[in-house]
Amino acid sequence: MVSWIISRLVVLVFGTLYPAYSSYKAVKTKDVREYVKWMMYWIIFALFTTVEVFTDMFLCWLPFYYELKIAFVVWLLSPYTKGSSVMYRKFVHPTLSSKEKDIDEYICQAKDKSYDTLVHFGRKGLNVAATAAVMAAAKGQGVLSDRLRSFSMQDLSSYQSDPVQTGPSAAQPTTAQHRTRPIIRSKSESYKASS
């Protein structure tokens, strides 16, 4: 556990932060040699971190595994060994140069497929959202009509014919007040009354 923590710290400080600052200095001073040196380092470091994900899962039980990782990062950075430059020139550059057209074609296809997939799922998402909105609106309308149906027409007519009054005239409704409030009946109540 201690070896893992130390290797993480070394990789963070010496493998990431120091090279990042040195890259900043190279860009700021516009020193092409330093810029190329740090670009080669970052390419090798990206490959290292990719491989590290798998080696950490399967090879972490090896003795001195974490110490070897620390030594590799130091070797990459060392101005004496020029590890990142050596690895780039001997392995990475020749490999990428021979496969460059295939890689570019694959990236282009992946971009096209990802765009098509994004559009497809975007349309599906919009359809689902629209369907959900329509269903919610229909359900809401049904709830409103059920709520209105719960009031019978008799309730509405008695509500309109029973005014809330206070004062001396509250005991007896006048005939003029009675005439101004028509009784509303539904068709079914009218049919029942006529039968």
Can you put this structure into words, describing what you see?
Residues 158-177 have a biased composition (Polar residues). The chain crosses the membrane at residues 38-62. This is Receptor expression-enhancing protein. This protein has two domains: 2-81, no CATH class; 107-161 and 173-185, no CATH class. It is mostly helical and 195 residues long. The chain is built from seven helices and no strands. The N and C termini lie far apart (93 Å).
End-to-end CA span? 93 Å
Instruction: Please state roughly what percent of the residues sit in beta strands, choosing from under 5%, 5-15%, 15-25%, 25-35%, 35-45% or over 45%.
Output: under 5%
Give the uncertain stretches in residue-range form: 174-180
Oligomeric description of these chains = single chain
Radius of gyration: 40 Å
Average pLDDT: 77
The computed structural class is mainly alpha
Summarize the helix and strand pattern as letters. HHHHHHH
Helix content: over 70%
- Structural domain tally: 2
**Using DSSP, what is the number of strands?**
0
Count of alpha/pi helices: 7
The main β sheet shows up as: none
Outline, from the CA principal axes?
elongated
Which structural traits does this protein have?
195 residues, mainly alpha, 81% helix, elongated, TB2_DP1_HVA22
Helices and strands, with pairings:
Elements: H1 2-29, H2 32-58, H3 65-77, H4 83-149, H5 153-161, H6 175-180, H7 187-194
Helix pairs in contact: 1-2, 1-3, 2-4
Protein name: Receptor expression-enhancing protein
Family: Belongs to the DP1 family.
Pfam family, one: TB2_DP1_HVA22
